Amino acid sequence: MVPQETELQIGSLLFEGFDQMDVTGPFEVLSRIPNSTHRIFAKTLTPMRDIRGLRLVPDAMLAEAHQLDLLHVPGGFGQEALMEDTDLLDWVRRQAQGARYVFSVCTGALICGAAGLLKGRRATTHWSALHLLPYFGAIPCDERLVVDGKLVCAGGVTAGIDGALRVAAALRGDEAAQIIQLQMQYAPEPPFNSGTPKTAPPAVLEQARRAVQAITEQRQRTAERAARRLEISLISAEKP
Question: Residue 3: how many CB atoms within 10 A of its CB?
């Protein structure tokens, strides 16, 4: 836990084609952490459109970021364009080195992996991309939330809220996180039990897989190139 008098610097990465809830879900939590400043960083100050069309405007460019205490890396289909962006990956790597915590949501874990942050670490991501984690040297865990040292990985989309609460507790204590949870009235009671591949009806799972088939195949090819660049030997990976 960080002393209350220490102001925390929190930064979220933004890019074209992000998933808005990967950003806004955790933002709802992280922006409430006592004595903290939360800023959203991107390569340009141009408004970024999420995969469903919502636009968000960055606060500052990557180069303007001081050392962050918490680096938040969201996912989304646009993640693919970043996987071989040397400048952005260098920024992620540099920030991660000095950060107290690195927090990925959904396929943001793949960005962290491309930056070399997952080697030998337990990690999770969206179920459709979980089989790709070994290409980055990670130990895949089919869990909603995984904590390995200062690396915190949340699964798909909504798991970002859970991960943000865990990070808030690590930074400011359990009580501070519980107050935030109560303020948000975060007590989910989903109407269906289809939130994971294990619990979803087979027909629902099949449709969901087909919907992401193209991006999953593209991510596979990108992950294979990343494994070669990172010098990670992998014979094969099990598909979801």
Answer: 7
For 86, counting Cβ atoms within 10 Å of its Cβ (0-12 exposed, 13-18 middle, 19+ buried), the class is exposed
The yes-or-no verdict on residue 236 having pLDDT over 50 is no
Answer whether residue 239 is part of any domain.
Answer: no
Domain assignment of residue 74, yes or no: yes
**101-105 and 55-56 strand pairing:** unpaired
Answer whether 105's CB lies under 8 Å from 72's CB.
Answer: yes
> pTM of the predicted model, to two decimals?
0.95
Q: How many CB atoms lie within 10 A of CB 238?
A: 8
Residue 132 CB coordination number (10 Å): 27
* 221 lies in some domain: yes
Phi, psi of 223 (to 5 degrees): -65, -40
pLDDT in tens, 118-136: 999 999 999 999 999 999 9
Torsion of CA 110, 112, 118, 119, to 10 degrees: 100
Enumerate the active-site residues.
106
Distance between CA atoms of 220 and 203, rounded to whole angstroms? Answer: 24
Does residue 236 sit within a domain? no
How many domains does the chain divide into?
1
User: Nearest-CA neighbor of 226 among 139, 133, 154, 152?
Assistant: 133
What is each CA distance from 7 to 66, 114, 164, in whole angstroms?
13, 30, 17
CATH number (domain holding residue 104):
3.40.50.880
Residue range of the domain that includes 80: 8-229
